[in-house]
Specification:
With 354 residues, the chain is mainly α. It has helices at residues 2-11, 16-37, 45-63, 65-69, 76-87, 103-118, 120-127, 133-143, 157-180, 185-196, 213-226, 230-237, 241-245, 248-272, 276-291, 306-323, 327-343; strands spanning 147-149, 349-351. The chain has 17 helices and two strands. The model is unreliable at 130-134, 141-154 and 320-354 (pLDDT under 50).
């Protein structure tokens, strides 16, 4: 709530008061619940699943309050839809024109992508101390949609911290590149955090289409980078480059992206008579947007030949199959690698074979 509140103060928007009220309400509610349930220290798998489920529900219900109370989304259920779409990085919106929203509300929408892109509960593990490592582990198991997790080393929150360090570094780096392209600071902030979450909430009705080719190219590069398994970056950081490029998922990610982009560019060139470099520019952007499910656009690709829809329907399926097993949990894999390197310990993290 703080970032939209600061934005509202800068732009002198009355909607900011509702972010303040909601923030105070959330703090008071959290304090009361902590006092009521603090004596219950036993925390098992059942409690972990309940905590994760209720956490997502409460997050959506409270996060929707400023959008509804400000009157910018008249119906509360629509506000819940909008913010849940943000936290889950789905990117669907009930808004017919996002430019009608105030600055603080639009920033709130984009920031929900940034939090949800990494996993809200991973963020909680990174910044909030719990009673013990067992609680962290059970929350992690409950948050995981399929992998089987076991722990042989302490301090699971370290994994989330490494994950968010990489995530934040890439976000800041993209923000800097956008500023260098003379993009307004507010636009650059919203675009960078929206891209990082691979959700696609934007602040312009034409998405990225009205920005310069340089800014579009920056978005292309960082949409692609945020779609890469973060294990790749960790291997690079610890100077194990060969192992980084040996990750099967990463290799196929590069191959599918390059192949799809080239195929679409050639098709647009020959079918629509556009120049090859124009086609390649937009093909790289759109394929990165589709493969990472970011949803940004630079052109009306409904006018493109059918091969784009067929080609990228496959890319959507490919991305959907790998998406949920990627960013929210790969941080724990990073932690395993770090512990293997530093302490000789490990934590198994592999798909269930049931």
């Amino acid at each position: 709530m703080l970032l939209p509140l600061v934005t509202a103060v800068i732009y002198r928007e009355p909607a900011g008061r509702y972010f303040f009220i909601t923030g105070v309400f959330a703090v008071i509610l959290g304090h009361i619940l902590t006092k009521v349930f603090s004596a219950k220290n036993r925390f098992y798998a059942r409690e972990g699943f309940v905590t994760v489920s209720l956490g997502w529900i409460v997050l959506g219900l409270i996060g929707a309050l400023p959008l509804y109370l400000s009157g910018e989304i008249p119906k509360y259920i629509d506000a819940v839809f909008e913010i849940v779409s943000g936290f889950t990085t789905t990117g669907a919106s009930i808004a017919p024109n996002v430019e009608d929203f105030s600055y603080c509300v639009n920033l709130s929408r984009c920031f929900s992508h940034w939090l949800g892109g990494m996993g809200v509960l991973v963020f909680v593990l990174a910044v909030l101390p719990l009673a013990g490592g067992g609680q962290n582990l059970r929350l992690m198991k409950a948050e995981s949609p399929g992998p089987s997790v076991s722990k042989l080393v302490p301090k699971l929150k370290t994994s989330a911290l490494y994950l968010y360090a990489i995530y934040m570094f890439l976000t800041v780096l993209m923000f800097i590149f956008l500023i260098l392209g003379r993009m307004p600071i507010y636009d650059a902030l919203c675009t960078s955090i929206g891209t990082a979450g691979t959700g696609g909430y934007g602040i312009k009705a034409d998405s990225i289409g009205s920005y310069s080719p340089y800014i579009q190219n920056v978005c292309t590069v960082f949409m692609f980078l945020f779609g890469v398994n973060f294990n790749f970056y960790f291997f690079i950081l610890i100077k194990r480059v060969k192992e980084a490029f040996s990750i099967e998922e990463v290799k196929w990610y590069f191959i599918v992206y390059a192949g799809a982009s080239l195929l679409v560019a050639l098709n647009v060139t020959f079918a629509m008579g556009e120049s090859f470099f124009y086609s390649l520019h937009h093909a790289f952007f759109q394929c990165a947007s589709v493969m990472t499910t970011t949803g940004f656009s630079t052109v009306d690709f409904d006018l493109w030949p059918q091969v784009f829809e067929d080609d990228n329907a496959g890319a959507y399926v490919y991305r959907g199959l790998r998406r949920q097993h990627r960013r929210r949990y790969e941080g724990f894999e990073i932690y395993n690698l770090f512990q293997n390197r530093q302490e000789g310990a490990f934590m198994s993290y592999s798909p269930q074979k049931r």
